[in-house]
Amino acid sequence: MAYKQTEKSNSNTKDNSVVKEYADIFIKALEEEKLPWSKGFSVVKPFNPSSGTEYSGFNYFRLQFSASAQNFEDPRWMTFAQASYLGGHVQKGEKGTRIISPFKTLDLDENNKLIPLMKDGKPVVDDEGKTVFQQRLAFKAITVFNVEQINGI
User: Fold this and answer.
1) Where are the beta strands (DSSP E) in 1-153?
2) In angstroms, rounded to a whole number, what is the distance separating the alpha carbons of residues 88 and 85?
3) DSSP assignment letter at 36
4) Which residues partner with 123 through β-bridges?
5) Cβ(36)–Cβ(58) below 8 Å
6) pLDDT tens digits, residue range 71-88?
7) How far apart are CA 48 and CA 69, in angstroms?
8) Listing from the earlier edge strand, what are the strands of the sheet with 77-78?
9) Residue 74, class by beta-carbon neighbours within 10 Å (0-12 exposed, 13-18 middle, 19+ buried)?
């Protein structure tokens, strides 16, 4: 399915900043010749024990890079809220690592109206006769902490 990208869907500078932030860190490491993978990345992929998510793609690389730079050996990462829910608390002064989290959102036209999903020139309806609307994948920046930064876990 083709998605129409609108100016609104491309203007999320807050979420794009996590990619720019990482690019800046990566460029600095290249310039200083302090590449974390020269030490070797962990064989165990970074994962979130609370959600069961095994990080991949950009987030895998970002978390491996952060773990190497901070000498973390534990592959577990989670949000502040997840740590709290599990009875832990982030140690005072610790800084998290920003990653990107995908989510689905409904697509809007230039008038901010939902765009119906079309098939053969007609709107698609679900089993209950309700119109199905186009969705697109979007991203938001979230901050996660390595378990070595959390007490009580």
Assistant:
1) 77-78, 89-90, 97-106, 118-119, 122-123, 135-146, 150-151
2) 7
3) G
4) 118
5) no
6) 999 999 999 999 999 999
7) 19
8) 77-78, 135-146, 97-106
9) middle
